[in-house]
Amino acid sequence: MQDASNNQSFNDGVRAYLMGLQTRIMDAVEALDAQGQVNSDVWQKAAHEPLQGSGVTKILEGGRIFERAGCGFSHVQGQSLPPSATQARPELVGASFDAMGVSLVFHPLNPYVPTVHMNVRMLSALTQDNTRVAWFGGGMDLTPYYGFREDAVHFHQTCREALSPFGEHLYPKFKSWCDDYFFLKHRQEARGIGGIFFDDFIEFGNEGSFAMLQAVGDAFLNAYMPIAKRRLSTPYGERERAHQLYRRGRYVEFNLVWDRGTHFGLQSGGRTESILLSMPPLVSWSYQHQDPVGSPERALLEDFLVPQNWLG
Amino acid sequence: MQDASNNQSFNDGVRAYLMGLQTRIMDAVEALDAQGQVNSDVWQKAAHEPLQGSGVTKILEGGRIFERAGCGFSHVQGQSLPPSATQARPELVGASFDAMGVSLVFHPLNPYVPTVHMNVRMLSALTQDNTRVAWFGGGMDLTPYYGFREDAVHFHQTCREALSPFGEHLYPKFKSWCDDYFFLKHRQEARGIGGIFFDDFIEFGNEGSFAMLQAVGDAFLNAYMPIAKRRLSTPYGERERAHQLYRRGRYVEFNLVWDRGTHFGLQSGGRTESILLSMPPLVSWSYQHQDPVGSPERALLEDFLVPQNWLG
Q: B189 CB near a chain A CB, below 8 Å?
């Protein structure tokens, strides 16, 4: 008997889930941000481009809550897996593939509301004897400008609970992976307070691994929205805003210098405006900036942007 | 008879020239910008770091003319040339080396004043039979937010005149090199209106090549200051400022994604705050931004940020 995941309907199911997730999340963003309107933009790669594919970009800019909240769905098809993907899998050399995913970054206006990133994706290929192999990747991570332990705990707790039905080994593994990945080596700073990250995931087969991916995607609104709602009315002034713009520079530095997806995407002819949805709307740099000892801005650096066990 | 450039005094002479150039340029910046004050910062690499070295950073932030104008001198010593530098020069495998240079980026406040970048540098090593080999590199390029043909012509004319005594072949070669280098492939846009760029230059021997480097460094103030002075009183409003902040995003994208020096420096443990002197003080991103047809903002893209022959 052939595994049901071999036929095209498996890919169709993943695609439908991802597009539904994008809609659910951006509907929730629009519902929260009374002032903002989410614009949808459907794009398609031109026939002469190396990868065929299409996508939907949903973005809210200049909102009351979100200064910029972008969420992209994309689905590209390739004629032949790149060598990097087949090095350990000779049976897949020359296989055509589908890559699809949802990726989001929200940059709130209020500096007390953290920036958040989430990504869920699948790479899927058929071997020559018609067996489908699917790898899953993604995760979510939180980048506060002012640190609150209860927010970090809530975010990590929600991630752990989402993964728990699939095995208690997953959260610690994906949590460490996230700490390692979202680290600015040139600053020796974590990008934020972490979360979970995984790649090339295949442990539970196609169906089981996809179920885990869904659990991660479905947990996003529960992980982030309560934190956003708790902080969005906190009063702030020029000092907090300046701190937020300065710290956003770290986000830019990480994404353009270290993030493999962003860097590779830009260098290999990906869709620039979709890749750079993650950029903050407004950012500042200044030389040798130092936060005063004892300030909450300094506490962010010393107490929060250091990888640690948030769940005690 | 041994070439005079074999002894240490050749390196000392280059070092003295570079430090003097940095001072001359930043004195001129301070003289122009009545409100700003140039701060000097002397730094030294800690003994445990892989490269030994020191430098002087001069920077003006929040000026009346320059929102951020940084100029760095650095001089590092290495125990052994990296393989990339000795691939075509087996006689230098294992040679110790000196690398020194001056690099600047000025980000003016008024959007009618262009951003400018200049760099002059030398890599110098001794072969086992005590022959000094020195390679020179650098150049300068201009990035306007509003295009003025006369500014582009003046900048290129000054570059050509600086190189002319060393041979009429140099300007066309270095001009094309600059166009090729400062190009954002992911946007299919030039970073600016170009200028000159060269690397691994050794054509006139140590002394002669250094003389050419000096001609380039010495030409900088003549190339840029008349343009800055001509534009700094042009009135502007929110529209021009928004355009400038948006275009500065391209500067960030180029430097963090494509510029080999910046990218390699950050990934290999260079001094982050010195490397990122080039970052603009304030930058914005927005999705699918389009300048109206017929606007001066659109003309920048269509008529100026396209490599072309400025000297007719």
A: no
Specify the amino acid at residue B213: L
Rounded to the nearest 10°, the torsion over CA B113, B197, B167, B85 is: 160
Whether residue B310 lies inside any domain: the answer is: no
Query: Does any domain span residue A311?
Result: no
Number of domains in chain B: 1
pLDDT in tens, chain B (312 residues): 345 566 789 999 999 999 999 999 999 999 999 888 899 999 998 777 777 889 999 999 999 999 999 999 999 988 888 777 777 777 888 888 899 999 999 999 999 999 999 999 999 998 888 889 999 999 999 999 999 999 999 999 999 999 999 999 999 999 999 999 999 999 999 999 999 999 999 999 999 999 999 999 999 999 999 999 999 999 999 999 999 999 999 999 999 999 988 988 888 788 999 999 999 999 999 999 999 999 999 999 999 999 999 998
Within a domain: B32:
yes
**Inter-chain Cβ pairs, chain A and chain B, closer than 8 A:** 86
Maximum Cα–Cα distance for chain B, whole Å? 67
Q: How close A289 comes to chain B (CA, Å)?
A: 9
Q: Which residue has the tokens 């929600």?
A: A158
Distance (Å, whole) CA A199 – CA A178: 10
The whole domain housing B265 covers: 4-304
CATH of the domain at A114: 3.40.1500.10
Catalytic option among A48, A75, A107, A117: A117
Catalytic residue among B48, B75, B107, B117: B117
